[in-house]
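User: Here's a chain of 59 residues. Predict its fold as tokens.
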Amino acid sequence: MFKNFLMDETGAELAEYAVAVALLVAVALVVYQVLGQGISDANSDTAQELQNPTITVNP
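Assistant: Prediction complete.
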């Protein structure tokens, strides 16, 4: 019975899926952090330009 328990690998799949999900979550958090800051900066720049518009006229 103990030998069968040690040879049973059904839990290994679950552990592999858990590691894969943890890695995907970690990657998603990093991407969200990087893109989130970039999008926030772009929105701030656009808001600043709308508050202080400059008009250029081509002759």
